[in-house]
Design a protein that fits this description.
Residues 602-652 form the Chromo domain. It holds the Pfam family Integrase_H2C2. This protein is of the alpha+beta class and 671 residues long. The chain is built from 24 helices and 21 strands. The strands form 7 sheets. A 5-stranded mixed sheet has the order 13-12-11-14-15, with helices on both faces.
């Protein structure tokens, strides 16, 4: 014959079988037609009712799938109905129309046609035997015609026949929003105001507004864009933000977390926001926002140093700790160190940039502290030569102070070591957000000092150091969003009474602060492994360099990671990776700029040009970085390039012809 088909006698015998009565009859019938399933289109859908009934038979027979166990089960006892009779009749009818499988012709081309939809996929293997195309070509030769290629989505009339009566798939519109790494640096960023909050409250449903309290404060009376006067709605005595105002909520989170807020933790950010406003699900939103902050992820990390026993004070300015931290050479080539002075009781800190760690500079800074906060008679530092020498000894003797040093345990000065970790993390986050190089740290040290002194301290019971030291209220990030309050008039007697109340409240606050500080210290004191692998010149670099793309999993612990800018791939251990986003992350220019700024370093591709800077009296080279555009070329001091890349530096000087480069060759003795 021309193909393969089932025996007609066998098919006829199956069609004449009586309707099954027991489970064994149904099992025998299903096993018989299962041999023909490859020739029956849509076999599974066709016999689904009979298959489900057979599963009931096996369940009623105790789970056994033998013919003997199925024979004891009557179909009418387990739900045989008209539906199954109809399915049996349809199956018998289809058996008479089974497909015939043809033998392939080796002289003809074998064609495979495949297609898929949202629910199914299928393919057909066939051979073209008719000469229709040739006949069409001969027929069309008698006409003058032009062939036009119409795309499928435009060819609606021809496509209409295949889609007639089918349900339209639901389509979800997708809009891409730019990823703002540093929103406050964007000129388009709109600061939240009372008016924007009122505009969001106006469009809220009436049943929701009816449950909110109308503010009685005149400051909360705003005029909308339509000219309508509106009193802000409150919930739990703070401003209510509708849950639907997602963009407004995001801007509020940015204001209380970034920039001068100091990239606080999720708990501190939530506390600052709760003092100003509230919305449903705010805790989860704030935690997600802080977790997604690239600057916090880049700056966090590291292990705490082991802390030993330390002296503590019971009153502000009763005991001060100080230490130097190496920050790296500044851009101007002057300051390298930062002297950190901290009050033990109030946690107030003061930063002093210095070119060198000398005793004379320490003396000057201590006198400046004493001029502002009065003389402190108890000092704690390590045993460095810049702390323990004749200059400091004379200052100690003149003032009558006691100087305690930590012998053979440089990190035991734990009170100030905690500040070192905080300031380094803050410097990393702020430099990353403001797109400043690590050598520009002196320009940000005053802002960092402001932030640390305004941050609520857990050891002080949530009080800020500036409040514990001077009884002045701490700056809240929410204050940048609120309108100024009304002026209040007062008499001299009222001012004097208020001052006395403030002094009494300050003394009581110091007592509570000491109790909370001692409780916190006793609960959290523990020993940790010493921090290892810290390179002094890299302290201000971000801890996390990314994002990057995981391209391959080589083992359970090693991944191949691709740089988004230079496109080089390197293996990374799983412990060094932090998950940020899946493959749906849209890599835009803002994200690439963040990666470029916080990168772990780039290779020098070429030296483009050279110049002489009269103000600094140094030579600089224009460097082209591998994987970056020409617009990212930057000037670097010739001293640094000569020290890092001497071979490339000498080759550049020998091959160049400009007068400046020849002078560089003479200055560096490149022959």
């Amino acid at each position: 014959g021309t193909g393969v088909k089932h025996d007609p006698a066998r098919v006829e015998a199956l069609q004449q079988l009586p309707s099954p009565v027991s489970g064994a009859d149904l099992q025998q019938y299903m096993c018989a037609i299962n041999w023909m399933r490859i020739s029956i289109p849509g076999y599974n859908m066709l016999v689904q009712p009979l298959t489900e009934m057979l599963e009931r038979v096996f369940a009623a027979g105790g789970g056994k799938r033998t013919k003997q166990a199925a024979a004891a089960v009557l179909l009418e006892d387990i739900g045989w109905s008209v539906v199954h009779d109809d399915c049996l009749a349809k199956t018998n009818a289809v058996l008479g129309n089974v497909m015939e499988l043809c033998h392939p012709d080796p002289q003809q081309r074998l064609c495979v046609f495949a297609d898929s939809s949202e629910g199914h996929c299928g393919s057909v293997i066939t051979q073209y035997t008719a000469q229709k195309l040739e006949r069409w070509a001969l027929l069309l030769m008698g006409y003058s015609y032009v062939i036009h290629d119409i795309p499928g989505e435009v060819n609606v009339w021809a496509d209409l026949l295949s889609r007639w009566g089918s349900t339209l798939p639901s389509i979800c519109a997708i809009s891409q929003q730019p990823l703002l790494i540093s929103p406050l640096r964007d000129e388009k960023f709109v600061w939240p105001t009372f008016v924007s909050i009122a505009e969001a409250q106006v469009v809220a449903p009436d049943d929701v507004l009816s449950r909110m309290t109308k503010s009685l404060d005149a400051v909360h009376l705003v005029v909308l864009a339509s000219g309508q006067a509106w009193l802000l709605r409150l919930v739990d005595d703070v401003i209510w933000v509708p849950v639907a105002a997602a963009e407004l909520q995001l801007r509020l989170c940015v204001c209380v977390h970034a920039s001068l807020a100091g990239h606080r933790t999720a708990k501190a950010t939530l506390a600052s926001l709760e003092s100003f406003c509230q919305w449903t699900g705010m805790k989860g939103d704030v935690e997600f926002f802080v977790r997604r902050c690239l600057h916090c992820a880049s700056a966090s990390g590291g292990s705490p140093r082991p802390l030993g026993e330390a002296l503590h004070s019971t009153a502000p300015n009763g005991l001060i700790h100080w230490d130097f931290v190496f920050m790296g050479a500044s851009k101007t080539g002057g300051d390298k160190y930062l002297l950190v002075v901290k009050c033990d009781a109030s946690n107030m800190v003061w930063f002093f940039p210095a070119p060198e760690a000398t005793a004379t500079f320490v003396k000057y800074c201590l006198l400046q502290w004493f001029a502002v906060f009065a003389v402190c008679y108890e000092w704690v530092s390590e045993q460095g030569t810049h702390f323990k020498n004749q200059v400091i000894a004379e200052l100690q003797h003149v003032l009558g102070a006691h100087h305690f040093t930590t012998a053979r345990c440089l990190w035991a000065n734990g009170t100030v070591e905690v500040v070192m970790q905080q300031l380094l993390r803050l410097f990393r986050a702020c430099l990353s957000e403001w797109r400043m190089a690590p050598d520009q740290w002196p320009e940000a040290h005053l802002v960092s000092m402001l932030v640390l002194n305004q941050l609520p301290s857990p050891s002080l019971g949530g009080m800020a150091p500036v409040t514990a030291m001077s009884d002045r209220p701490a700056m809240s990030p929410a204050e940048t969003m609120a309108l100024p309050g009304q002026l209040i008039s007062a008499t001299l007697a009222e001012v004097e009474e208020g001052q006395r109340e403030n002094i009494a409240a300050l003394e009581e606050m110091h007592k509570q602060m000491l109790v909370e500080n001692a409780r916190k210290r006793d609960r959290l004191r523990q020993y940790h492994d010493k921090k290892k692998g810290v390179q002094m010149a890299q302290k201000l670099r971000t801890k996390w360099c990314g994002p990057a793309v995981v391209t391959e999993v080589t083992s359970n612990w090693v991944y191949n990671v691709e740089n988004l800018l230079a496109y080089y791939v390197r293996p990374v251990h799983a412990s060094r990776l932090i998950f940020y986003e899946d493959c749906d992350l849209d890599v835009m220019s803002e994200l690439l700029a963040h990666v470029a700024h916080n990168s772990e370093g780039f290779e020098v591709e070429a030296m483009v040009d050279a110049r002489y800077v009269p103000t600094t009296n140094v030579y600089e080279l224009l460097i082209k970085w591998r994987g970056l555009q020409d617009a990212d070329n930057s000037w670097k001091p010739a001293n640094n390039i000569f020290a890092d890349l001497p071979v490339m530096f000498k080759a550049f000087c020998k091959a160049a012809t400009s007068a400046v480069i020849k002078k560089i060759a003479v200055a560096y003795e490149v022959m």
